[in-house]
Amino acid sequence: MTCVILSLSQAALMIALSPLFAGILRKTKARMQHRVGSSVFQPYRDVAKLFRKSETVSKDASWLFRFIPYVCFGSMVLLSLMTPFVLADVAAPYGDLISMVYIFTLYRFMMVLGGLEGGSVFGGMGSSREMMMSVLIEPSLLLSLMALSGLTGGSTVMSDIPPALIGMGVIVLAPALVLAASSFFITLLAENARVPFDNPSTHLELTMVHEGMLIEYSGRGLGLMELSSMMRIMIFASMIGALFFPWGIALTSSPADLAVGVASMLLKVLMIMLAIAAIESYLAKYRLFRLPNLLTASFALSLLAMISLYIL
Amino acid sequence: MFPVYDGLYLSLMLVPAVFGVVVGAVPSKHAKAASASLCGWSALMGALAYPLFLYGGTVSYTFPVPSAWGPYSVLMDDLSSMIVSISSVVFLAVLSHMMRSASAPRNGKYASLACTLFIACVLAMCADTVMLLLMAWETVTLATFLMSLRGKNGTAAWKFFVIAHVGGLMVICSFLAMASYADGQTLSSWSDLSTVMGVPASCGVIVLLFVGFGTKLGLIPFHVWMPDLYSSAPTHTSALMSTVSSNVAVLVLFKSVFGYVGVSDEMYVLAVILMAASSFTAIWGALESLVQTEPKRILAYSSMENMALVLLCFSLGMLFSDGGSPGLITMVLVAGLFHALNHSVFKSLMMLTVGSAEDCTGETAMERMGGLAKLMPAFSIVSLVAVLSMAAVPPFNGFASEWLMVQSLMGGEGIHMTEIILPLGVAVVGISGMMAAVSYARLYGFMFLGRPRSERRVSKMIGASSLAPMVLLALLCFAMGIFATDIMGRLAGGIGASTTIPSDDSYMAHLAGTLNVPMLAGILLVSVFAVSGLSRVFRKKSTRSPTWDCGTPLTEEMQYSSVGFSQPLVRVFHPLYGDVMELSDDESSKDCKRYSIRFAEPFAERLYVPLSNLVMKGAKYVGRTQNGNIQSYFGYILIVLVTLLVAVRFI
């Protein structure tokens, strides 16, 4: 029972903190570009404002369009319940690493269908580009997770991985883990529509991918979609923090462990956000047809991780 | 079961269908309805096969038919009864959709052929003697060929006929080879013939079986008939071909390779080759499905991709027999069979969807559909279920089998010599699965969403009688996803019973704890409906307005087109496509050139066209000898005579 309560509350914490980290990311970027930037709590205000506003739906959109934000949000809730955040032992025994990949597919699939709803060019273009990237992301995402599960003895259950990695000690910092983690980091950038894959701060430009799909949403629907995308980057970051570099995560539910877990996790997510902000400030968005090179590099990294797992 | 009841059950299932064959051929107005309902009764009985198996055990029966080739007997064991049940449900759904469908052929002969197909499929799945199996398999081919002939455009059907017979020949050869080593004709007594046959012979037989059944499943380069046939044949033929007859091929292939021949650990190289072939087929099918503009062609290529994943699982099963535990082999085979079953459910649903959409709009090109979801919400929900299961999205059935596939690939890691093969296998499943998902998103998005893409109005709405079978299949998609772990366990038991692989459910028991689809679906549904319920309670004003498009009026042509949608991926995988850029003068204006891009199937253009040219050239040379001159014919006789005499002298 405590386990259920703890894992529910860690999912709630994750959902509650995701706009904050989005705000930190934006603020850091602004500071790096010598701007003051908006407050770190601005995303909360944005989402709250969107929830209060009335909605305008395209005349061409069908029932599916109104339904999509809820499905996207629901799939992110599903994922945040199963991702270890503070406590390694999550009480959501309904899926593993592989089902996680497929739940991300559900999210993306729905978002792509939403992009096609409006009957305009922007949505279709965003959907089309998103699908191109997702085809190239999928193998490297699966392979980096496979390397992770191979490293810890073949289990794909999420809550088994942190104790196994911690139990292995320093040996675990083998090339396999580092390679798999760097491949996973590239997929994080691609999946979350960050620079160099996409520019999250543009609107109504031909470069946009993620925002293109969201262009027809307004009011509550847009709020849910924005919140889900903040949750998505949070889930990815905490996966790096909890699965690839799990040191500090609480293995038992004693208060001391939990306190260390919260502190270390927040630190890790913060570091990942800072890294993303640095990349976004120092790198320009790539041309669309240069992206396959980067994603192939990510695939090669994860394949190398698999190879090094057996050679070394 | 008691022998009397075995015969009773089989006659209740097969005799109405036999009557249906006869009734359908009667030239009467009611022939079609009568024949189809008889076949429906048979399919209903077929659906009971697995419940009856659970109640009474294996059904075995020898038909009281005198024959020169030994008895004709059937054996319906665990695995076959399960597959017969699912296939019968699919058959029933397709039949009941056919009854009221506008595009289905109206004459009774079509229904009569459907009856024939049903009988042949059931017999091929449960045949226990070689002759019955081969005859049933041939009948499946012939019935589907006749069902796909429509109008004057029979080229695609003939292409299928030729390729399927090349495959049929290979199947016959392999069974004859096996029969020469086995004692007796009874298939259930054949087991592990590879110990008698030796490795080279059994490898040869396995290759023949894979390629022979692979022609039906769309193995490269034998897939060229599929897109043409599926798009030109009546909807219900395509639906039955891609589902029920694929199930037959998968089941018989499975029983032959893993039961009759039996895999041994010396087949490592062969397994890798077969794995490469099926991986290539999977990726090829997914790639080609991205550029098709007709929904049925997309479905054809996606069938090819799905069946290639099933073949990939079978070849992995062979690979794992070299050092893998029985539990792992069972798991990968379960993944293959489960995927075949799931495919038959969601693909038949999607075929019926596409057929109905074509009936409603009168269009076959995706570019001219669009906006159907607003007109027919119920229909669009049902087809969304089909698309989501095809794209392997949780909690539907396609997800469960692909999950098991990836899981078994990851579980095999660490077995001798597979270190680099399995990661590539995972990459293949990942990339082909995702590409297929893209092409289904495209299919659904351009058929149902957006605004209508052509001037033509939807002439008629889909009726309840067409929708009911689709709802049945959609529920089955959902149920097979929810009860996935239970079905996997049952399949594992069936595999243990009908092959030489020792029954071992250690992996399956472990997996049952890893994946809990009911809970996953429950949490997803609860969170979706909780949030949407909350937003209903705190309702805000919602207005409808036209899509904003920078001030200019938005026309149909301004929507993103389906060709443009897949263009980024085409650019990335460019060297693999046989795309032809064409430049022609635009007739409407003088200074305009019209660029168009056409995708030709490279295998047809680079392999089959040269092959047929070669054959024609050879025929021309042979034709020269037939000059109609009696002297030269005497000369030929002389040459043959001398050659024979010389041959006889030296042998």
Q: Please, could you describe this protein's structure?
A:
The complex is a heterodimer of chains A (312) and B (651). Chain A is mostly helical. Chain A has helices spanning 2-32, 42-52, 63-82, 97-117, 121-151, 161-168, 175-191, 210-213, 219-244, 255-282, 291-311, and one strand at 55-58. Chain A is 70% helix and 1% strand. The relative contact order of chain A is 0.16. The model of chain A has no long low-confidence stretch (mean pLDDT 88). Chain B has 651 residues and is mainly alpha-helical. In chain B, the strands form 2 sheets. Chain B has a two-stranded antiparallel ribbon with strand order 1-2. In chain B, strands 4-5 form a two-stranded antiparallel sheet. Chain B starts with a helix and ends with a helix. In chain B, helix 1 packs antiparallel against helix 5, helix 4 (78-100) runs antiparallel to helix 11 (235-261) and helix 7 packs across helix 10 (225-232). Classes of the chains: A mainly alpha (312), B mainly alpha (651). The interface between A and B is large, with 78 and 83 residues. Strand 1 of chain A pairs parallel with strand 3 of chain B, so a sheet runs across the interface.
Mean pLDDT of chain B: 88
Strand content of chain A: under 5%
| Helix run count of chain B | 26
H and E string of chain A? HHEHHHHHHHHH
Separation of the first and last Cα atoms of chain B = 58 Å
Major sheet of chain B: size, sense and barrel closure? 2 strands, antiparallel
Gross morphology of chain B is globular
Q: Give the spatial strand order of the biggest sheet of chain B.
A: 1-2
What is the mean predicted local confidence, pLDDT of chain A?
88
Task: Summarize the biggest pleated sheet of chain A.
Answer: none
